[in-house]
Amino acid sequence: MSSGCNTTKRLAKDEVLLQKNRIKYTEAINVDQDGLSDVIRQEPNRKLLGIFPFYVWAYNIPNPDKFEKRNAKRLEKLKKKNAKRREKGKDELELKPFGSWWRETVGEAPVVYDSSATSRSEEQLKTYLLKHGWFNADVRSDVKFKKDSTKAAVTYIIEPNLAYTIRTLDFDIPDTALEAYTKELRAQRKEVKVGDRFNIDKLEKERTQLTTYFRDRGYYDFNKVYIYFDVDSSLNSHQVDLTLGIIPRKIPYEGDPDSLLIAPYKRYQINQISVIDLPGIRTLDVANSDTIVLPEYTFIDQYQLRVKPKIIAQNILFRTGDYYDLSKTTRTYRRITSLPIVRSASIQYNPVNEDIDNTRLNCQITITPAPKQNISFEWKGTNRGGFLGIAGSAQYQNKNIFGGAELFNFSLSGGVEAQQLLTQSENSGNERNLGNDAYFNTVEFGPEVSLTFPRFLLPFGVDRFSKSSNPKTVLTANLSYQRRPDYERTRSFGSIAYKWSSSPDDSWSFSPLEVSLISITRSAEFNEQLEQIGDPFLTNSFQDHFIVDSRLVYTFNTQRFGSRKKNLYYYRAEIETAGNVLRGLFDLSNAEKNENDSYEIMGIQFAQYVKTLHDFRYYRNHNPKMSTAYRLSAGIGVPLENLDVLPFEKAFFGGGANDIRAWQARTLGPGSFRDPERSFDKLGDILLQAQVEYRFDLINVLEGALFIDAGNIWTINADEARPGANFEFDRFVSEIAFGAGAGARFNFDFFLIRLDVGLQMKDPSLDPGERWLFQSKEKYNEYIRDLNADRDPSQQLSTYQWRWNLNLGIGLPF
Asked: What's the pLDDT score for residue 437?
C-alpha cells in the first residue's frame, strides 16, 4: 500500500492498529451473530464496502505537525484581528483550520489495539453465551500481529459446550385473576416453552408480553418488575427448571398496621373522560371557555381547537366505564395527533381518590392545536440525460375547513423543461438541437384540489370499524396540461379513496372509483412518423381515451423515525382494474361498437385492463453510519378487449432517477428491442427490477452511495414492429439490463437532494456477446455504419461509447 493510503503512519512506535475481529467456534451453534459481535468492546475502524479503510485514511491525510505550525502563525494574526474587533465592539472570530476539521469531521482516528479491551470482550462474550443457555462456555482470544507489528487481528475462539434447555415450567401466581390471564395469553402465544434452549432474552420478552396483556385489561399500575423467573440449574443434566412468578400485592391490615395482607391486584375502570384544548402558545391567556357534555365525554372548550367535539370523540377508542387499556390509549394518542389540526396531545390518568380500595380513574386528554392555514412554495431543478428543466409549486392548506378536522389542499404546479423531439433521433450527432422552439420546449402545469375527511363517507354506518382503524376519505380532482413540440396532452382526473390501518405496520387504500380523461393533440410531423412506423401499440398509446378504474393497495412498513432496529422491511401490493364493468354494461345494452370493435363514451374509447404491482424492500442497518438497501419489484398489466394496449399513464417503463439509473426515464427496453433512430417513450406490460444500494455517511450533511440496478420491461404480445420486445421464459434472463454507479446525497433532515451517476454495464438491446460493457461492439458499430450510409451528415448516428447518465432527485430512490 502506498504511503498516502498507509493506515498506520500516524501511530506511535508502541501502538498497533486493530485491523480485524473474528469469532470462531469449536463447534457450530445457533446464536445471534450480530448480538454476539455487539458485545465486543473494541471494534476496528469502519471500511467502505467492508474493504477500503476510507475514514482512517482520511484522518491520516493531513500532517498534524505541519498544520499546527501553520495554525500557530494564523493564531497570532487572528489575535491581532480580534483585538481590533473588540475595540469596535464586534464578536471575536474563531480559528477553524481545514486540517483539523478534516481529521475530526471526515476522518476517524485509528483504533489502537488494547489488550485489556480484548480481555473484557472475552468476559462479555462469555456472559452473553451464559444468558443464552451456554452456562459452561469458554472464550479465549488469539491475537496475530503483522510481520512489521503495526497491525493486529483478534480471533475470539468460543468453545460453547452443551447448552442448557428448559425441562419444566411451573407457575407461582397467588392472584387467581392474573394466573388466568397468564394462561390465557400463553395459550395464544408464548416466548418461553419447555424443551427450548434457555434464553434470557425470551424470558424478558415473556415478562413484557404479560405486562402489556395485564395493562390492556385494566391493571393500570401493574409493573414488569412484579414478574420474575426462578431458575434451578442444579440438575447435572444440562437442564433447568423454571418458575414464572408474580410478586403478590400486599396491603396493611386494618387491625395491625405492622402486618400485611395479600390482596388481588386492582383492576381499574375509567370514571370520567375530559378533553381540553390549550392555546398553541402556552403563555396566552384564555378569555372564554365552555363545557360540552356528551354521553361518554366532557369537553372543556376554550375556543382554541375549533373542531366539532364528535370528531375528537370518534378518535377516542375507550369510553366511560371501560377497563383501563394501555393499547387503546396508545392508539388513541396516535389517532388524535394524526389529525392535521392537532399539533400535540397528551393523555393522563389519575385515581379518583387515594383510597386503598379505589379502582376508578379519571382521564384527561389535552390537545394543542396547530395553525389552521398554511401556504408553502417549493421549486426543484430537473436533469433528464443532460436536458435541463425547472419546476415549482404553490400550495395552500386549510386543516379545519368545515370544523370537522377536514384537510383542504389546493396546489398549483408547473414547470418548463428541455426535451428531445420524438420525431428526432436521440443518437444523432445533433442530439441537442431542439428545433425552432425555445430551449425549454416542454411546458407542464395544472391545479389539484383534495379534501380529506377523518372518517368514512359511506351511505351506511361503520362506527365499529372506524373506531379501530383510523379511517379517512380522500376526494381528489386535478387537471394537468403538457405541451411538447410533438403533441399536447391534457388529463382530467377525479377520484374517491378510503384509507385505513389495521395495525401500526399495515395500511390499506381502496379507491372504488377513479376517472381520467386524456386528450392528446398530435403534431403533423408526429402523426406522419406514427404512420410510417405502423405500430398499433404506439398509435394507441397516443390517442384520446377514458380510464374508469378501481384500485386496492396494501402497504406493510416497519420503518419508524428514530428506530434502532437493524432489519427493516417495506412491502406494497397494488391491484387495479379498469373498464370491465363498463364493457359488461355496454355488452348488455347491445351498444354500437366503433371500427376497432370497441365501445366509446362521448366518442372516446375507454381503457380496459387488469394490472398488479408488487414492491418489496429490505433495509439492513450495519451501524448508525452505514446501511444497505435492497429492492425487488415486479408487475404485470394485461390489456383487454376495449383498448388492446395499456394506457400511457398505466404502462411500465424503465430508467430514471428512481429506477435503472444508468438509463434516462422511459429509454430502456422493452426486452431486447433496439431502435437507435427514434426516441419514443418506451413502454411495456411487464416489469422486473432489482436494486442494491450501499449507503454511508461522509461529512456533516454529505452522504455517499454505491449502487447496482438490474431489470427491464417487456410486452405481453409479440409485435412485428418491435422485435424482441415481448416476454419469453427462455430468454428474459439474458435481457436483464444492468447499471452501476455512485451517488452523493445532501441530507438537510427536512429534505434530501440526490445526485446519482449510473453507467450502463449491460445493454440488452445489443447483440448477444456484445451486451456487457467489457465485450466487443463490432456488430453494433457495423449496424450503425450501415444506417449512416444513406443519412444526412447532420443526422449521423453515433457508434458505441460508454453510456453515462446523471440523475438529479429529491429524496432517496427507495
From this structure: 41
